[in-house]
Amino acid sequence: MMSFEMNDRKKIGLGLTGFGVFFSFLGMILMFDKGLLAMGNILFVSGVSLTIGLKSTMQFFMKRQNYKGTISFGAGFFFVVIGWPILGMMLETYGFFVLFSGFWPTLAVFAQKIPVLGWIIQQPYIRSFFDKYRGKRVPV
């Protein structure tokens, strides 16, 4: 049975993941600063590893259907580190969407429960967009 309590390791992992996203965003805003982007990538990956556990992280990235996303995310990280941040971030963005495409329906359900955002998402045009992709993995 899985444990959903929030222990200190998960809190630290969520904090590192948040800082990783923040530093990556800041690196893109500041003209693709490779130092901030590399730091954001390291913090993001270490935060995900701490949040869900090392074994679960390895299983997630090594699934057969996630190979394409894992390889492009890793190649993007490599290109950021060696000094080609624009190409690296393009590859990482593609890898991120491939890896986490299965989570979009869950994110949509969560977003519908947020007070103001939920009302916006419930509008017919936007809801039809979410319903079109509900329960499907986006092919890439």
Write the layout of secondary structure elements.
Elements: H1 8-29, H2 34-52, H3 54-61, H4 67-82, H5 85-99, H6 104-112, H7 115-121, H8 124-133
The Cα radius of gyration reads: 17 Å
Helix share bin: over 70%
Strand tally: 0
* Helix/strand order, N-terminal first: HHHHHHHH
Count of the separate structural domains = 2
Family: Belongs to the GOT1 family.
Membrane topology: Multi-pass membrane protein
Subcellular location: Golgi apparatus membrane
Protein name: Vesicle transport protein
Question: What does this entry look like structurally?
Answer:
Belongs to the GOT1 family. The chain crosses the membrane at residues 12-30, 36-54, 66-87, 93-111. Its main location: Golgi. It is found in: Golgi apparatus membrane. With 140 residues, this protein is mostly helical. The chain has two domains: 8-99, no CATH class; 103-140, no CATH class. Helices cover 76% and strands 0% of the residues. The protein is built from eight helices and no strands. The chain has helices spanning 8-29, 34-52, 54-61, 67-82, 85-99, 104-112, 115-121, 124-133. Helix 1 (8-29) packs antiparallel against helix 2 and helix 4 runs antiparallel to helix 5 (85-99). It is globular and about 45 Å long. It starts with 7 loop residues before the first helix and ends in a 7-residue tail after the last helix. The mean pLDDT is 86.
